[in-house]
Design goal:
Glucose Permease (Domain IIA), 4-stranded antiparallel beta sheet, 3 helices, 11% helix, globular, Cell_wall_metabolism_enzyme, signal, M23 family metallopeptidase
């Protein structure tokens, strides 16, 4: 005997969030806009950067990452037809004040700044890339490691009293050595031991959607390796600029750093 849920699925009555895994629509700086498109719209871009498109059923969607620097107000996307306007809503992020014992991580020496500039370019080139979709539907995401989220994304940060850029990822406190897994299928496009980020893995999920995993104690994958969802990519650590062991999970979409929690099931 079919349950009511199964009958509704077979009849196509369930809402899109129940049938497939579109991320949460949150139109704020650092958020995501999930935009239904007219049938004649086949290309969407923002400031020359291609925007991810997905069509899990008869409806096509643009999934747009809103940069953290975006002011409140109207933002316009370009298409092959009419432009699309979306409204960016106000959103207040918390502040975070941290004490860093190693002063090099607060005021780096020139040699360290040069190293950081090289590493930042390497990562930014990955964020700006745009590859083919890796599956017909938008990828479903799971937690990359066990632990309670600190809701640290977007926080204005102060290191030893000095203001720095807002936090562009999500911190998950966890013990050193705990497994970190791929939250969705993807290809490893970056592996490194960086000045600020420590041991790091970057995974491309297709169409400008990139995951970043930082401060690892061990990396279990290599560049070019294809990962299945749930496959171990490394272990939690405390490498780079940290105050304790945790996983920094970052997400970038159309070269905008966005809140990873928006990709997880509600």
């Amino acid at each position: 005997m079919f349950s009511i849920k199964k009958i509704l699925i077979l009849c196509g009555i369930f809402t899109t969030t129940q049938v497939f895994a579109l991320p949460q629509d949150s139109r704020r700086a650092g958020g995501i806009a999930v935009i239904p498109l007219a049938q004649n719209v086949t290309e969407v871009s923002y400031n020359g950067q291609a925007v991810l498109l997905t069509q899990p059923n008869a409806q096509r969607y643009a999934v747009f990452g809103i940069p953290l620097s975006t002011p409140v107000g109207t933002l316009q996307l370009q298409t092959n037809a009419q432009p699309i306007q979306i409204e960016i809503q106000p959103y207040k992020y918390a502040e975070q004040r941290l004490t860093i014992k190693n002063q090099d991580y607060v005021n780096p020496q020139q040699e360290q700044l040069d190293r950081y500039a090289h590493e930042a370019k390497e990562q930014n080139d990955i964020y700006a890339s745009f590859t083919a979709a890796q599956s017909a539907d938008f990828p479903r995401f799971i937690h990359p490691t066990a632990g309670k989220f600190s809701n640290s994304f977007g926080r204005k940060r102060f290191f030893n009293g000095e203001e720095r850029a807002p936090h562009s990822g999500l911190d998950i406190p966890a013990p050193v050595g705990q497994k970190v897994v791929a939250p969705a299928i993807g290809i490893v496009v970056g592996v490194g031991d960086y000045f600020f980020n420590g041991k790091t893995v970057l995974v491309d999920h297709g169409q400008g959607l990139i995951s970043m995993f930082c401060h690892l104690s061990k990396i279990n994958v290599e560049k070019g390796q294809r990962l299945q969802q749930g496959e171990v990519l490394g272990l939690v650590g405390k490498t780079g600029r940290v105050t304790g062991p945790h996983l920094h999970w970052g997400m970038s979409l159309n070269n905008a750093r966005i809140d990873p929690q928006l990709f997880l099931a509600r």
